[in-house]
Amino acid sequence: MAEYRGINDLFLREQAIRRPVRATRLELEIKSLHRLMRGLSKNLRESLKDTVEAACELCDADSAGIMLVDRLEDGAEMVRWLEAAGHLRDLIGQTLPLDRSLRGVLKEQRPRLVYRPHRLFPYIAESWAIAEAMLVPWTGEKTSGILWVLDRSDGKRLDAEDVRVLKSLASFASSAIAKDEVEACRLDQERVGAAAKVANELAHAVNNPLQALTNTLYLMDTGPGEHLQDARAQLQRINSLVRVILNSNARPFKH
User: Fold this and answer.
1) I want to staple 144 with a disulfide (CB 3.0 to 4.6 A). Which of 12, 69, 184, 214 is the partner?
2) What CATH architecture applies to the domain 186-246?
3) pLDDT tens for residues 200-222?
């Protein structure tokens, strides 16, 4: 094993591209792409699960994962493991600071090959005996992320064919996340519209008995006994409507 000489030794940059390239397994790649396309109708979690499983299969890798950059309200940036397969699966949902190494990967927007990644990334356990990691970053309109692939074998090394495949999978993951964001925005708009409609109906529903009660109270000045029952009925209607307003599951209703 080559002697470790520091961070420049860890980030091998273009070394994978200079290695002998294995033959393209076109049939397996087409099969995986078909599965990914069918998965677009699933929820985001399932689509990304298909993506990391395809990364493992097409690159003969032991583990793969998708890391997403979260921007907090105070401006700080964290990374979150969104989906993973293999050893990385235990990290799903965990958040970490966006450290200097990961920030550099995202800034360069180019794949990086990392030898013995546990020496640079503490969340990659040494006991996993990972020989290499390939990090493929992407940046979308609203989100940024990194597709990881981990390989335990010293005999089988990641090469340019793996880089090509992983770039395509990273692009797919980015598109799936963007699609989910658009759908979430649309649903939010629909919820706002529905809430506005309910609020409008409630306003009219409350106003009618309130006006009737106001008139009844005015008439009670001349004959309280005669109009007391009507006033009680109008108050009961208002009380019922208030309970509807307080109910978080309120729906449009007749009044």
Assistant:
1) 69
2) Orthogonal Bundle (1.10)
3) 665 566 666 666 666 666 666 55
